[in-house]
Amino acid sequence: MASEQDVRARLQRAGQEHLLRFWAELAPEPRAALLAELALLEPEALLEHCRRAAEACARPHGPPPDLAARLRPLPPERVGRASRSDPETRRRWEEEGFRQISLNKVAVLLLAGGQGTRLGVTYPKGMYRVGLPSRKTLYQLQAERIRRVEQLAGERHGTRCTVPWCVLPALPRPGGTLPHAPPQPRSRREPQLRLDRDIAQNRPKMGPGPSPNWTLDPEPRCRFWSEPRLPAGPGALAAGSPRLPCRYVMTSEFTLGPTAKFFREHNFFHLDPANVVMFEQRLLPAVTFDGKVILERKDKVAMAPDGNGGLYCALEDHKILEDMERRGVEFVHVYCVDNILVRLADPVFIGFCVLQGADCGAKVVEKAYPEEPVGVVCQVDGVPQVVEYSEISPETAQLRASDGSLLYNAGNICNHFFTRSFLKAVTREFEPLLKPHVAVKKVPYVDEEGNLVKPLKPNGIKMEKFVFDVFRFAKNFAALEVLREEEFSPLKNAEPADRDSPRTARRALLTQHYRWALRAGARFLDAHGAWLPELPSLPPNGDPPAICEISPLVSYSGEVRAAHPYLWLFWSQVWNTIWGEVAARVETAQLYLG
């Protein structure tokens, strides 16, 4: 361990010797922890970090005055439209995607983010339940989608395939990581309801009321849950089905421990643990407006993850690309944890990008209205970029194309495609060229007397990089426009927010599953034997007349089919008030197929 004298000398070189101002008051153990944290600091790197943070914060905010003249929409030949393409084109994209998955060339990488603070919880956002009948978390939904897409690819090509899952979470351990230094190495059984693989004659006996009788699955797919036996369509998971591709999960030091523990407790959602790779991103010190590192305690520096653009340093720190190369992975699907509708390793998206010859790609949704607070994927000076909504003037946001649509309407949803070779070039050549973004935050700190202060207004700077900042380095960028109602419903805000809340995410998923069931020929009866209305087109904020949740293990993107000439049963909620009220009644609804 570095000595106090060594650390003081290093801090003086960086102009940050105030970090030891409470040294005389600390006991031996806190002293050791603080020294361990500060010893990781490279003086020159810290000096540069603080200088850049202060300078960036001092610069005028708002869009560059000449930005409007430099903006252009993406060229039409580089944009695909999943919903408006002819069926044969979409089929070719999907088939190519399934082919690459079957060859074990596709991995998914999860930007797991930080804690669900804005949701009012202290655990990682992927562990959050939005209130589905199955009580599944975001992590479980995503794991099961990977299992299903592997199964579909294996069935089409007669192979056993694997999609690795890389998880990049974001809380610091004692002695957390400082700038430019790589991280240190490191019941009760509640039934779930879902349409699943079991045959119809084993369906549960379900009566009205909130406590149906359950037939427990003798082989529960999740360690702490068992499931009712429900009939399934022909795509249901069977014994001996292909393993999922390897999964990569990027966490931060704040969330790595809880995320790993959660996966272990849930038996990795029946994925092979060898194919679930978790790794940390770096942390950076929070800085005052005059360039001084903030102490959050007498013995601890205020740290924050370096944004989802910290992915690229983390890939290099943990040799993730070398791991992908050993597995034969060539294409990587990167996504954020908070989109409840995300399609992991989406074969349509993968196939589109591969057939376009893209080294970098993005899924986009059409902006709902000109002022929607979402970044726009476009060109700046002829190269692809994401321009933040705050940087686009109202006049530019209102511009229309010849067909009447918004000229800049490609909304970014943090859903990206990269080739492994492109990521390799980014980590080795382009990452140092990425410019950090300034986030002005309220950062708790200790004052000169050592008292903890929780500021009421922003007092510090956190520097972040964004995952999409590398688009400009792509030689062949492509974008695929998808339907918002099918693929994008983020979870960001606690109730009772009217946007991006548990309520809106839950509604989006259950409405999607209701549409899938109708398309498969389903009809619903209420508890009195009356047909429920068929509403394939629901109002934007409307609830479906029956609540129907379909397991990802049965349907990845709506491929629900009638396999038997008899009934399938769903647990359905029919209500005379809004979703979520205690007055809602739980009924048995009958679902007729085919």
Q: Secondary-structure blueprint of this entry?
A:
Layout lengths: L3 H11 L13 H12 L3 H16 L8 H4 E2 L6 E3 L5 H16 L3 E8 L24 H20 L7 E5 L77 E5 L4 H10 L10 E5 L2 E3 L9 E3 L2 E2 L1 E3 L5 H7 L2 H8 L3 E6 L10 H10 L3 E7 L9 E5 L2 E5 L6 H4 L12 E10 H11 L6 E5 L3 E2 L5 E2 L6 E5 L12 E5 L2 H4 L14 H18 L3 E3 L42 E7 L10 E8 L2
Parallel strand pairs: 2-20, 3-5, 3-11, 4-5, 4-6, 5-6, 12-20
Antiparallel strand pairs: 1-13, 7-10, 8-9, 11-15, 12-15, 13-14, 16-19, 17-18, 21-23, 22-23
Helix content: 25-40%
- Quaternary structure state of the chains depicted: single chain
| Distance separating the two termini | 71 Å
Principal-axis shape? globular
The number of strands is 23
Q: Cα-atom Rg, whole angstroms?
A: 25 Å
Average residue-wise pLDDT? 82
**Structural class of the helix and strand makeup?**
alpha/beta
For the biggest sheet, the summary is: 9 strands, mixed
How much of the sequence lies in strands comes to 15-25%
Number of helices: 14
Query: Which blocks of ≥5 consecutive residues have pLDDT under 50?
Result: 171-244, 562-594
Describe this protein's structure.
The protein contains 14 helices and 23 strands. It is an alpha/beta fold and 594 residues long. Helix 7 links the parallel strand 5 and strand 6. Helix 1 runs parallel beside helix 3 and helix 8 packs across helix 12. The radius of gyration is 25 Å and the shape is globular.
